[in-house]
């Protein structure tokens, strides 16, 4: 390892070392009162739209007509929140609260309201009786807020719409936050998901010196919607062995069963939590001592808590003679007929009054000061932690000038580069300039995708065991590259990192990024909602770099050939999604500089890692990327002042090569044909401007593509996406698209193109077929194109490689063979995923 290697600042912030003190009886009563208040507000949100403090007898008209929400997990969440608050106040912790059981939304809204944060963010929901009425009415109500922990909830960074990502988000949030802790509740239903099972291993990728702390709390309440949960139905010995196997020190708590005195439960859990936090303090103090002495810290067995309580704790024990508390029946709305039957209305009244709201709120509806004192103040409130509103603490990246990494292009196609390798050189400098707030995430593919230049200045963070040769493989206790063979984990880490005010990118093979389809869906929805919340500040964009793409997965075969992630993303809101297909190294540099500067987007960049021609100088690339698309006049044969006969459009590095090769054939074989070549970098430019901020006006589109001129478009992905994007412009259905159509195998690069009819010869045939007057006059040329395809396939099947005139094709036969001299379509010899 060299002296220039860059890591995060390993000088840890001082971890609070206030001595732990068992709670006094007064403190326990205050915690219990705060918990009762949170539970009362939670039940009120699910059921009530009026009479928030039960000043008058409960009537049917006080109950919402549609009862929506989730009660079962909520009382456990509020219990844990109340105890976390005590620890924060006593120890001076900087904490956030992440809830895997995201449908416990009423509990987290209640907590932020009791802390005062909710009213600060939403002044109309004031800390009085009128505010309580608004708080209750808005929940799961038209024009109100969702039933889960959502962007609208202060202190939240974890969308409750999907399960499985609590721990990965928490660890991502704690990277490079050495003085922070994330109390992270894992639901026992969530614990059955694959992503969550993998995310327990995040403790092998954290550094006690530079990173913060995740305290996992496995909440075993026994049931999902209608079935028991696996981890709640195995013995403590087996469960302890599982958690120790994951590298944790488990601490157990069981409470709320057999009519236990709640004060006894509070006292016992306070002791468990203090034990966990004492262990954490010892680990952090050792890390600080190691850092001061210049030593590395060995991976500790971080504590975690196994928290077993009844589902629907403190709710009705039975309803209509059936067990409810401690059963799946408490999962959502236990008293579903509270508005419709006198029996359920009476049960609801009894339930609400069991929390004794008259002891919690004064005549004006204010929370009593003594109870409010259970929560921390100011920025130590978990609902007000600045890091949970990541844009408020975002520090812009210091980006080196990407032009310094430009590839020389004396004329189009003269030099050859691996575009992502060129980008890797620039990312190396980005890492150097931003050692504490930029990370690269990927599933074991940083080097495979040619970004290995970053290892000149940083390492892959790794805190499992080391072998003697690992240093040579760039493994270290601290590093800016995070690799684990789980796309879910990489996505979750990066989301947590971004949501708390940092920057990064996710590099992956194109075919396997689909694994995170639902995760990016949730993140895009988060961004869409936060755009509508003035108090949520913009965060850094979620940036993808997809390489090892469909057209260069001929060696790995059909399973590795899928460009459909783009199709999935463009379903999201137009103000969120951006898709870029840079055709060469210089356009990739310009594109990624833009992406790392952007905010509130999901940026998808697809770029090949194989040697390909460079088409544009850096100055030309910057202009081309700023436009998003443009006419390459040097490639076409149109005449100024005259309308072209055909437009050849392209998007993607390999489609660009094939389009230019087809244009060259047409130039030589049909000299009088007026051909216009248009390259598209920003795919969203093809939409109409009424549909996407980057879209073209009808006038601009017609100016580029004509009004009734045939357009032959070679596209990187599934061809129907181009039709979908351009349908408002393509009134006469004159755009004909070639792309990937689910044909592939282990074969040569050019045969892959031929299997999908996206090769240069087929593009020439398309022009002959669609330009009026060419079909008869150039039937011989068309036949030669058919024959050329047959000959190319025969050569590939006999020799195992493409013919030299294809593999080594250049735009200009007299071009200077600058660069590394590799053929433009060299085959990949890299490893599998």
Automatic annotation (TrEMBL):
Q: What is its EC number?
A: 4.1.2.-
Q: Where is this region: Disordered?
A: 1-23, 812-833
Q: Which Gene3D superfamilies match?
A: 3.40.50.920, 3.40.50.970
Looking at the record, the residues that make up the Xylulose 5-phosphate/Fructose 6-phosphate phosphoketolase C-terminal domain are 609-811
The highest taxon in the source lineage is Bacteria
Q: Cross-referenced Pfam families, in alphabetical order?
A: XFP, XFP_C, XFP_N
List, for all copies, the residue spans of the domain called Xylulose 5-phosphate/Fructose 6-phosphate phosphoketolase N-terminal: 24-392
Which controlled-vocabulary keywords does the entry list? Lyase, Thiamine pyrophosphate
Checking SUPFAM superfamilies in the record gives:
Thiamin diphosphate-binding fold (THDP-binding), TK C-terminal domain-like
Q: Which family does it belong to?
A: Belongs to the XFP family.
Q: What is this protein called?
A: Probable phosphoketolase
């Amino acid at each position: 390892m060299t002296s220039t290697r860059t890591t995060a600042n390993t000088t840890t912030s001082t971890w609070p070392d206030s001595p732990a003190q068992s709670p006094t009886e007064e403190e326990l009563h205050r915690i219990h009162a705060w918990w009762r208040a949170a539970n009362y507000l939670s039940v009120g949100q699910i059921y009530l739209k009026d009479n928030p403090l039960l000043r008058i007898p409960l009537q049917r008209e006080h109950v919402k007509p549609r009862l929506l929400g989730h009660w079962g997990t909520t009382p456990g969440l509020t219990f844990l929140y109340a105890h976390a608050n005590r620890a924060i106040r006593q120890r001076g912790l900087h904490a956030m609260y992440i809830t895997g059981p995201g449908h416990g939304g009423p509990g987290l809204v209640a907590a932020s309201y009791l802390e005062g944060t909710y009213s600060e963010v939403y002044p109309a929901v004031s800390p009085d009786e009128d505010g309580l009425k608004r708080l209750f009415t808005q929940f799961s109500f038209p024009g109100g807020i969702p039933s889960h922990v959502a962007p609208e909830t202060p202190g939240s960074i974890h969308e409750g719409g999907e399960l499985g990502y609590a721990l990965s988000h928490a660890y991502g949030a704690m990277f490079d936050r050495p003085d922070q802790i994330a109390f992270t509740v894992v639901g026992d239903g969530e614990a059955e998901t694959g992503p969550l099972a993998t995310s327990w291993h995040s403790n092998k990728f954290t550094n006690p010196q530079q990173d913060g702390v995740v305290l996992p709390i496995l909440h075993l309440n026994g049931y999902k919607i209608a079935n028991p949960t696996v981890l709640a139905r195995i013995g403590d010995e087996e469960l302890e062995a599982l958690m120790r196997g994951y590298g944790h020190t488990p601490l157990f708590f069981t409470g709320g069963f057999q009519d236990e005195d709640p004060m006894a439960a509070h006292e016992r859990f306070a002791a468990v939590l203090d034990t966990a936090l004492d262990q954490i303090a010892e680990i952090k103090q050792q890390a600080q001592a190691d850092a001061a002495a210049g030593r590395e810290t060995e991976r500790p067995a971080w504590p975690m808590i196994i928290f077993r309580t009844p589902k629907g704790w403190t709710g009705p024990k039975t309803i209509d003679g059936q067990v409810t508390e401690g059963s799946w029946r408490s999962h959502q709305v236990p008293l579903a007929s509270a508005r419709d039957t006198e029996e359920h209305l009476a049960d609801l009244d009894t339930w609400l009054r069991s929390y004794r709201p008259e002891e919690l709120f004064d005549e004006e509806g204010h929370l009593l000061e003594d109870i409010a004192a259970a929560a921390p103040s100011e920025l130590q409130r978990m609902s007000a932690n600045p890091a949970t509103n990541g844009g408020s603490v975002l520090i812009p990246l210091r980006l080196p000038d990407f032009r310094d990494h430009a590839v020389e292009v004396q004329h189009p196609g003269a030099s050859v580069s691996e575009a992502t390798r060129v980008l890797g050189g620039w990312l190396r400098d980005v890492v150097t300039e931003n050692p504490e707030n930029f990370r690269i995430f990927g599933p074991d593919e940083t080097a495979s995708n040619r970004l290995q230049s970053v290892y000149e200045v940083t390492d892959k963070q790794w805190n499992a065991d080391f072998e003697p040769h690992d240093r040579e493989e760039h493994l270290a206790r601290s590093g800016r590259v995070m690799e684990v063979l789980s796309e879910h984990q990489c996505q979750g880490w990066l989301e947590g990192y971004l949501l708390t005010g940092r920057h990064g990118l996710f590099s992956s093979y194109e075919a396997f990024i689909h694994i995170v389809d639902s995760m990016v869906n949730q993140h895009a929805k988060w961004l869409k909602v936060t755009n509508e919340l003035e108090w949520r500040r913009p965060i850094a964009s979620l940036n993808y770099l997809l390489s090892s793409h469909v057209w260069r997965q001929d060696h790995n075969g059909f399973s590795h050939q899928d460009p459909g992630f783009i199709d999935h993303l463009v379903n999201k809101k137009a103000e969120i999604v951006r898709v870029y297909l840079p055709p060469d190294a210089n356009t990739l540099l310009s594109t990624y500089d833009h992406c790392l500067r952007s905010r509130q987007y999901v940026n998808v960049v697809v770029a090949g890692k194989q040697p390909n021609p460079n088409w544009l100088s850096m100055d030309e690339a910057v202009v081309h990327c700023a436009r998003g698309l443009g006419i390459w006049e040097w490639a076409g044969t149109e005449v100024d002042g005259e309308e072209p006969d055909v437009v050849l459009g392209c998007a993607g590095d390999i489609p660009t090569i094939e389009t230019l090769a087809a244009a060259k054939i047409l130039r030589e074989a049909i000299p009088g044909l007026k051909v216009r070549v248009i390259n598209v970098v920003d795919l969203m430019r093809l939409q109409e401007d009424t549909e996407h901020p980057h879209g073209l006006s009808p006038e601009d589109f017609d100016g580029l593509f004509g009004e009734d001129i045939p357009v032959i478009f070679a596209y990187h992905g599934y061809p129907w996406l181009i039709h979908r994007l351009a349908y408002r412009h393509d009134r006469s259905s004159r755009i004909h698209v070639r792309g990937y159509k689910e044909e592939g195998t282990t074969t040569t690069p050019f045969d892959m193109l031929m299997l999908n009819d996206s090769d240069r010869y087929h593009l020439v045939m398309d022009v002959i077929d669609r330009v009026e007057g060419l079909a008869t006059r150039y039937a011989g040329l068309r036949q030669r194109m058919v024959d050329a395809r047959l000959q190319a396939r025969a050569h590939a099947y006999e020799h195992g490689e493409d013919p030299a005139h294809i593999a080594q094709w250049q735009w200009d036969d007299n071009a200077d063979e600058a660069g590394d001299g590799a053929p433009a379509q060299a085959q990949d010899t890299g490893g599998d995923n």
